[in-house]
Amino acid sequence: MSETVSLSIIVPVWQEAAGIVASLSALQPLREAGHEVIVVDAGSPDGTAGLARPLCDRVVTSGRGRAVQMNAGAGVARGNVLLFLHADTRLPASAPAWLARFVASPRAWGRFDVRLSGRRPLFRVIAWFMNRRSRLTGICTGDQALFVRREVFQAQGGFQPIPLMEDIELSRRLKRVSPPFCIADPVVTDSRRWETLGPWRTIVLMWRLRWRYWRGESPESLAQIYRSDVRHASKS
Predict the structure, then answer these.
(1) Could you tell me the residue ranges of all domains in the chain?
(2) Of 40, 86, 39, 88, nearest to 63 (Cα)?
(3) pTM of the model
(4) Which stretches make up the Glycosyltransferase 2-like domain (predicted)?
């Protein structure tokens, strides 16, 4: 008998009051189908947790940082598949059917293709390159809604508690277990970060950070560079 997919969707949040209701409302059909949604809040002062509580199965409070938050959510999850979803990313309606195929496959983990929400043609080009790069390298970024069998995640020790590149670091370890299960039907992620920093500036920043990470620079120093660039852009 084939295994049935049981999803635990883990959403790390920090000051998402403006959008959390819309984000979680989009997940209600999955909850109605028996899957669980876990919101992990890092003590947001804007009331995010209170807004989330009626629309999820559990709100967990943890230390700040996506890796720490996602590990905290995974620690209380009950599903056989853990799916890590950013609050500004939407799953396609076909996600349950695709994830059922994943569970029936020999793969240990996977990710979705991604599409940016903005209307600019450049965003389509950026998404194409992101998806192509991911297929060639087997590396998943957080915007791509990484999913993994719970027992594999536990055996790997979860995310490393680092402030940046936690998705890339975990992908590298998971690649040793199996190639990723790639879903072409894309998640849609909000393009606001790209619009705030500017598309080309964001591309240069992300590639610069990844290059320095691959050369061995610490995630802590890269996180400082990232925060500095974001602060500078917000003042521009």
Answers:
(1) 7-190, 191-236
(2) 40
(3) 0.89
(4) 8-127
